[in-house]
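Sequence only, no structure available. Ideas?
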Amino acid sequence: MKTRKIIKGLRPMSAIVMGCDHMGEAISINQALSELELYASCGGNVLDTARSYALIDGVSISEKTVGEFLRSSGCRHEMIVMTKGGRDIEPFSDYLKKAREDYLSSCDQLGTVPDVWFLHRDCPSLPVAEIIQYCTSFLQGSLLGLSNWSPSRFTEAMAQGSPAISEIQFSLAPSTPQLHGDSTLVCMDQENRRFYKASQIPVLAYSSQAKGYFSKLIAGTDLSAKAKQRFDNPISQERVSRVQFLGRQLDVPPAAIVTSYIASQKDFPAFPIVAGSSLAQLEESLQGGDVELSSSQIAYLESSASNLGD
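Reply:
I predicted one. Tokens follow.
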């Protein structure tokens, strides 16, 4: 799998990031460990989890599973471990205190200090400087990332000299926070594209596979209710045939085209976060880490249609 040296202080990052939100919840721990082993064997080295993922009785089963994999495989020194905290922004008076508690809990669940710790949500009720200064005061060697922050707030954070990376929703099937039913999310649009092109802040793209939107439609499989609600729109529908055509041309599955679309972005560094309900699904998505789409191929996938909500 391709790697890129993007962030100072981190080893080169693999083109595709392993999403761990479903581990211990949607899939069993044993299957999760098998997926992590497959990912590592394909050259993947970035794991993305969160304090709130598969949270049961105060324990993040996702983080615990990642920690177990790191210990059992002995590959901690080869992996870039990323996790998130500070998801609950109400009441805002407790936001910073809870964020610190989340960080310490994550270190305990993972059994290691994460390489990157993200604020899972922004808290617009608080000044950016106050948030950044407080968070950098308790990080034990972790780099700070910001998830679901608007360009304007991220720009303010950059003035503090801290955030190294961003995480927002980004896929070939455009969506909006409204379609997700969550106003605290940030989805890629033209404003965000301009910001990331200018700033060159690396972007981790969650829901990069759009819940299997393209793979399922090409295979003639029904979409889930969430996939329909969030990603089924005229722009996405128009792109299905292009994904299919390009996949045949390059002799890779549709899932590989979808992930390589993110990983091949030319204007700013971007990394798709992927997951799978089976090893076969995951393997198809990981193939995108070996595909480099040209600017013309990316333009072909996007066509002349603008992003939803612009």
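The chain is about 45% helix and 15% strand.
Hope that gets you unstuck.
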